[in-house]
Write a structure and sequence with these properties.
534 residues, alpha/beta, 19 helices, binds glutamine
Length: 534
């Protein structure tokens, strides 16, 4: 196609308007036209990456195949586009500054005074263009975190201004704002949008496209007014109205010709509007599934926040659609669970999901839930810490080691069935103490995991420090908990299962990160199938 095109997505008026979904939808529509597309997120915070952030602060930490701890928006990009993102797809202010400061220490700037402009902005621009120049994508969509007007966003906006100036038609800015509805006046208000666009204009950026988030249909008159006051073409003002699912947004954008407008503005041929056949089929199937009587899955964890288990919730919902049933995820706070109230807490649950996590808090409740699910043969899926808890609960209540634990929880017990292993140290990336990113796993034929994947060799993403302690492996297997997935390089245990039960599987890796709209994850499909046939 020639030069890579750059689309910037900024947001104004309020946060949480769904820049990630709009970026993903634009990406999806361009991809459907045969273009190669990637999306990257620039976060204006000082942390080097979100790995150290509490899920309450920033929701789930997503992990890329190359082992980068990333913003959860990268999960949306992968689920919508079916692409794999990498470390280059998520940059923070912390990383930009670190790289500039490292260069300064190396003497790369030859004695110059290092300033936000041009050094920080140049580094931002270099990172914006990295994927385009390296991997030759047709489109690189860059989502800028935060809201226009924030002090920390300024260097990013200045970089966009410069890039727009340098790249001309090859760069375009989509600005997402909010049009509130004042119930008392019965009116939709465009003033916040006008102010937000003024804010952008004051730093020298004229947005090319405006996407207006709204809970009510916007009239043609209102859009015309916004176009006139904000200096934007009328057909470049589109609405993003609340949808029943985020996966409908690409279709809503296509119906308003958003991709067409973008292509025209960038001087590209428009051609035929893509059918988006498989996407529509998914949505139709989903709609039918949502009408069924829901099956309840207990999500046992300690972060009572939608975004904290984002990918797990999405993977469960996708698996529901492909099993033609609605999955209702019921959060169960593990901190509240006791042997006395567990039967009530899990009443009516068709399946139990024990999620990932760090630290001691809420751990004992997970053992309580696991014991109950195991003894009552409820389909159960443990992910990462969830799998580790499966192993500890089994050691305590079946192997008879009352003090069994993970070294993360208790340094002293002789029965650290979850431990830091030499093998883990050997394969962990230099400097890092966590096993991060995709690792191979060999599945045992005949196991639930093997049946689900339908293949012996898989690769899945990791994010953890502790491992199943192989010293205890024989005892586990003799007592009925099998190690059915092994890392071929290190011998580390990646999957445990209890074959005697209906569906009791724990994975040390995170399968939820690789479940996409058009390619739901086999383990989630298999888990929901088992839960339905309860
Ligand atoms: N805290 C555990 C570990 O570090 C599990 C991590 C996780 O669930 N992602 O091994």
């Amino acid at each position: 196609m020639g030069e890579t095109k750059y689309i910037f997505v900024t947001g104004g008026v309020a946060s949480s308007l769904g820049k990630g979904i709009i970026s993903s939808s634009i990406g999806k529509l361009l991809q459907a036209r045969g273009y190669s597309v990637t999306i990257q997120k620039f976060d204006p915070y000082i942390n080097i990456d979100p790995g150290t952030l509490n899920p309450y602060e920033h929701g789930e930490c997503y992990v890329t195949v190359d082992g980068h701890e990333a913003d959860l928006d990268l999960g949306h990009y992968e689920r919508f586009l079916g692409i794999e993102t990498t470390k280059a797809n998520n940059i923070t202010t912390g990383r930009i500054y670190k790289s500039v400061i490292d260069k300064e220490r190396r003497g790369d700037y030859l004695g110059k005074t290092i300033q936000i402009i041009p050094h920080i902005t140049d580094e931002i621009k270099r990172n914006v263009k990295l994927l385009g120049t390296k991997s030759k994508f047709d489109f690189v969509i860059t989502e800028i975190g935060g809201t226009v007007g924030d002090i920390e966003s300024l260097p990013y906006l200045e970089s966009i201004r410069q890039l727009k100036w340098e790249l001309g038609k090859d760069a375009l800015c989509v600005h997402l704002t909010y049009v509130p509805y004042l119930a008392a006046a019965g009116e939709l208000k465009t003033k916040p949008t006008q102010h937000s666009v003024k804010e952008l204009q004051s730093v020298g950026i004229q947005p090319d496209v405006l996407v207006l988030r709204t809970e009510h249909e916007l009239s043609a008159g209102l859009r015309k007014k916004v176009a006139l006051f904000c200096n934007v073409d009328e057909n470049a003002v589109v609405q993003s109205i609340d949808a029943s699912t985020i996966y409908e947004v690409p279709l809503l954008m296509q119906a308003q010709g958003l991709d067409e407008t973008i292509l025209k503005k960038m001087g590209l041929p428009v051609g035929e509007t893509p059918e988006l056949g498989p996407w529509r089929t998914f949505l139709e199937r989903r709609e039918k599934a949502e009408e069924t009587k829901p099956i309840h899955i207990a999500l046992v964890g300690k972060y009572d926040l939608q975004d904290a288990y984002k990918s797990i919730r999405e993977a469960l919902s996708q698996a529901g659609t492909y099993n033609d049933c609605k999955v209702q995820v019921d959060f169960v706070n593990s901190e509240d669970l006791t042997n006395e109230n567990i039967a009530q807490a899990l009443e009516g649950m068709a399946g139990v999901m024990i999620g990932p996590g760090f630290g001691q808090r809420g751990i004992e409740g997970k053992f309580v839930a696991l014991k109950y699910a195991r003894e009552n043969n409820i389909p159960t899926f443990g992910i990462c810490l969830g799998m580790q808890c499966m192993a500890i609960e089994f050691a305590r209540n079946v192997l008879g080691y009352e003090d069994a634990n993970s070294r993360e929880m208790n340094e002293k017990t002789p029965h650290n069935v979850i431990d830091i292993m030499e093998e883990q140290k050997a394969i962990t990336n230099m400097g890092g103490t966590m096993r991060l990113g995709a690792y191979e796993c060999t599945l045992e034929k005949g196991s639930k995991a093997y049946e689900a994947y339908g293949t012996e060799h898989i690769q899945e993403r990791h994010r953890h420090r502790y491992e199943f302690n192989n010293e205890f492996k024989e005892q586990y297997e003799a007592a009925g908990m099998k190690c059915t997935g092994i890392n071929p390089e290190s011998g580390l245990v990646e999957i445990v299962e209890i074959p005697a039960l209906k569906w009791f599987v724990g994975t040390q890796f995170h399968p939820e990160y690789s479940s996409t709209v058009l390619k739901p994850h086999p383990l989630f499909l298999s888990f929901i199938k088992a839960a339905i046939s309860q």
